[in-house]
Amino acid sequence: VYAFNENFVLALSHDEVVYGKGSLLSRQPGDEWQRLANLRALIGYSITRPGKSLFFMGTELGPWSEWNHDRSLEWDLLEDARRRGLMAFFSAAGALYQSLPCLWRHDHDPAGFAWIGVSDKEQSVLSYARLNGNEHAVVILNLTPVPREHYRLGAPARGRYRVALNSDRAEFGGSAYEMADAVATEDHPSHGFEQSVCITLPPLSILVLCPD
Hints:
There is one protein chain. The chain is α+β, with helices and mostly antiparallel strands and 212 residues long. It is built from two helices and ten strands, in the order E-H-E-H-E-E-E-E-E-E-E-E. Strands 3-4-5-10-7-8 form a six-stranded antiparallel sheet. The protein has a two-stranded parallel sheet with strand order 1-2.
């Protein structure tokens, strides 16, 4: 109820990683690769949803242990290429957020957000659009370790969409699952739109598509 009536913060704060709760990474399911992929998806989800994101210091390092005020952050984790990938994803997601006003200008306005697909529980895929007048971005999350080939998704506008962010890229520690860098819409109705795209969804990933 409050989402579009107040200015609010989506906090993954210090209280989420102390007092026996464990770190965000340690609470993810799967093996280490899957946990890091889940963490990237969680970070991307927070950044692309309405509201201002607040991440506690050290989240970008992906520590196994919870925060301890008596110790330094585990900077040695950056010797691990996967942790450096997580930090690179933080940086890329933050840069994209800054560059796309549709991700933040109308956080407090229902006109700034629209669900596209919220009922695909069989494949655990969520999708939504962030809107700023004629500007928009499409966000897709595949929340399983199973890639989804030829996934059809309604698109707000006709034309070509480029992949502006893909959490599964090798530089972020992802699997680099093969997919196109851009997709064109087809006159195939889906999700309440007159046009749609057919796209490959990498495992445990978040994608952000922008009109090209």
